Amino acid sequence: MPTSIAPTALNVALLGCGVVGTEVARILTQDAENLKFRVGAQLNLIGIAVRDTSVPRSEIIDPALLTTDVEALIAKADIVVEVMGGIEPAKSYINQAIASGAAVITANKALLAQDGPALFQAADDAGVDLSFEAAVAGAIPIIRPIRESLAGDTIKRVLGIVNGTTNYVLDQMTKNDLAFDQAVAQAQELGYAEADPTADVEGHDAAAKAAILASLAFHTRVGITDVGCEGITKVTAQDVAWAKRSGHTIKLLAICEQTSQGISARVHPALVPNEHPLATVSGAFNAVFVEAENAGSLMFYGQGAGGAPTASAIMGDLVSAARNRVAAGHGAGESAYANLPVLDQGETITRYQIRLSVADRSGVLYQITEVFSEHDVSIETVTQAPRPDREDEAYLIVTTHAGREKALAKTVAALEDLEVVQEIMSVLRVEGF
Fold it and tell me: In the CATH scheme, what is the code of domain 9-138+308-326?
């Protein structure tokens, strides 16, 4: 617990010893002297909680630090770093740490997206830090700028690429003409994707991060179930090719914005104009744009995953929490005071591009445009192109003006019922920024 006398040493407990945990342990031990001067107190790694102490570890890890007695370890700690992942037992351990008066550092985006408000409230009540810079976009410092640097500004929009796996996959599909399955396999070989990539490619990982960003940016509790979520599994080589033809690049975007009606938070593939900086974000890198009323547009770019980048973000939080301990205080607490409504996804407003395969005969375009008109969806452009593999059909690419998602959904359903529409090839959102 903080006292009026500044501590000369602080005990750090590490929960988890995977790739990230190992990197945190390495930094704490190898950079101990530098960290002491930066903090104003010695940071002592007193133990590493693991499920099985007999499992072979990196030579960086001192076996004497390993323990399975997590509760006893937490009881001795001033700062607890949770890198176990998952909901339980991580949630219980974090609550125990908070109750004991320890500051908590976590990279657990799934837990924060599900139970963040309750954890933040517990930390505020206990007067301790709960920091989570590493939970979103790896090494990119995005949480602290939103919570602190822009605390006196009004954020209007946060959008970006927050999942390195999907960005790598889409990048390979775009640059090297790989099929989706080929690009995923390559990502797995390089360690960018898990053996089961579902959380990444279905957008769930990005949605958890979007929930965190929206909650912070708009001072409103946004849960993961509030985030519209669509992954990249339906993106085809044809979609990528047509995007190139129209001067766009397909990216999986997390978009959080405040409108006059409330908060919108969503994750989905989108056509990004090639001239926009997000279109050039390659490989497993992440990039986040913040649009603020006074600061204007800010971009944060860097490595979004990996042991060392994530450990860097954790160490930033750890040093900050340690300095607060030395100064007998704690950092920014929860700020979900606005309590703004979170919009249903059907109320989301954006532009769309619909690619159809239609009968190649007179009168078809009239029928298509009539459907859009009936559902109050305004057409911006229509492009027709031959379909080489079917002489009696043609491609029709319709780009709309900004409209509500529920109106577009009704339009697509009506198009499917038209006899002249052979196939709806794709429906992609267009982000014009």
Answer: 3.40.50.720
